[in-house]
Amino acid sequence: MEEGWRRGGSVIPIDEPKKILLEIDAPLSENLFSGDEKDIFIKLINKGDFELTGITLDAVTNAPDVKLTLSKGSIDSLGLSGEDSLVLNIKSLAEPEMRLGATNYFVTITAKVGNFDYEVSMRLFIT
Fold this sequence. Notes:
Elements: E1 22-25, E2 29-30, E3 37-46, E4 52-61, E5 66-70, E6 74-78, E7 83-92, E8 105-113, E9 118-126
Parallel strand pairs: 2-9
Antiparallel strand pairs: 1-3, 3-7, 4-6, 4-8, 5-7, 8-9
């Protein structure tokens, strides 16, 4: 090698694909009888590569005579690998004497992320 020359190199950054991923961790099914009330514990986990902000939460059901209440309707932010917990209260408004037989219904829990056009939902089955 001639004098005055140096070997060198440079690092060329390669953009790896980044992902937005919010996971809703909740049981897949629950039993609910007429007149019952249950608290379902739910965890939201940021498994993506970005901070998530302005997360709004909603729960809806196709079950008649069931009232759903979330312990919180929003989460300000979830940092990278961040987690937050909430409770979904499910209350049957049917009288305990009513025995309707085994019927399957569902609750859909949805989280919408404000700083991205991103929405995730999961379905909890109620028997």
